[in-house]
Amino acid sequence: MAAAVLGSIDGNATTSLAAITVEKEPDAPLMFLSSSLATASRAGSFVVIVRSRDEFLHWLHHPRPGAEWLQVEGLLNDEDVWAAAARVPSGPPLDVIVSDPATEFAMLYRLVDVRGVRDLRVTIPVLPGLIKALRLAASLRLPVRLLPGQPTEAALAELGEAAEFYLYNPAVEAPIEFFHSLFAAMGGADTGSLWSILEQEPAVFARTDADGQAVIPRDFVAAHLQNLIRQDAECADCKWQSWCAGYFKHPDPGYVCEGVKKVFSILEAAAEEMNRDLAAQEEVGA
Ligand code: SF4
Asked: Of 164, 166, 182, 184, nearest to 174 (Cα)?
């Protein structure tokens, strides 16, 4: 089993960018702001969304206190940006968003030198091509966050393969979320639900509109799950409810969860195996 699987996970009082942990007040959501809003922001902690070379280089060279990390969107294809980023030896960590893993996976090589000078994570949507991007990211020792959304049948097949890869491939050293935290939760760690693990819990991570206002109410997750249960949706008697909290029923509440439940089961079987091994080791040592 990969060593990355065995890491401990903190509770809700922290937010994290893979291996990076940001201490924050539980009542203060981390604001995700466009570059222009972040420039004018008085928020205590925020994530800056950069979508152009100029925005990216500005925040690399002129980081502000409170900027916890940069969410870099649509810039993987700009080779010069990454060459420049590798030459700036300090500044905020980066969350590099992959838009289309099938066409962009080879561009992950551009991040190797950047990884040498700052903390960096790759966020990969669960779309066809995911497994190629994940294997390359793991070989480059890049922490990964998989964003599942509501995966198609083709993407689900790759997600299952990705879970097996995470659990059993010795090349995996850096965390692969959401597998890493969910696996830890199945071993007893307090990780919060999938919404928190994926940094999509609006009470903690506030996405904002053009005016800097949160676009999703802070109590959305509880209300969403209550609503599904009241309507006797599939979530009502789902064994994964405490960890999933209806994640896969958003935005389409009619999404059928058969495929994602198989992925949960892959992780659960491995967690049970590990728990049995640990119990056996304790018995031998007692
Ligand atoms: S796996 Fe599907 S049915 Fe189960 S809690 Fe999550 S969204 Fe609901």
From this structure: 166
